[in-house]
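Just scan my protein:

. . .
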Amino acid sequence: MELTTLSSVLAVIGYTLATLAVVLRLFHPKGPNLILILSLACAAIVGHSMQVSGFLLNSQAVNFNLPNVVSLVSLLITMLITLTALKYKVNLLLPVSYGFAAVWQLVVLVIPPIDTISLSADTLALVSHITVALIAYCVLVIATLYAFQVTYINLKLKSKNLAAVNHLPPLMQVENQLFIILALGTICLLASQVTGLLFLDNFFAKAQLHKTVLSLSALVVYGAILWGHYSQGWRGHRVLVLTLIGTGLLTLSYFGSRFVKEFLLS
């Protein structure tokens, strides 16, 4: 069995056990066992990192086909969520991020090989643009998860179901973190658009125009959320809906056409 396959198997087992460890004790009086959960997650992240490095870097080329990009995105998200869990209570986010990572690692194991889309490692401008764009996407996905957590805590507090939020952070703390993360993600997204505009000749080419329009539309949505919150006091359900719209636009921009090209038309 190849090393990348063994790495994916390790990641699937680790993420699955970590997800179960959170879900089974989510409403337990003492809460989830974070030491066990994070230990399992770290083992899974090691396997996941080996899988990504094995597929992403191949023969001095950067392989950005769709499964590899999604795997890289899920790795970055799980790493950021795990680091966040060391300091803050993010119990609701852990099973979502770990569960998705486990499912995608399983997908990587069973899907047939896809023709590589290789980029020369020397094309620094393009690689830098893609890297900043992926970081922006990861941060904004985490912001979306935070928006769900804010909505969940708010609903439980309104229904006076305090037992459901005993092991979750205070609403105002999570909301403040949400807008900090959202602002960071928006700045990274703006940076990715600027680097694309300055350094990529085909940024507004016909073949790339739909991606550019969708990502710029997402940037406008995220900017509107931040403006609305800090100037108009927007929060709650409106912020969740707009965040979902922005993340949906960004997902279509990054992955929509590639899914059609690499899976439906292959």
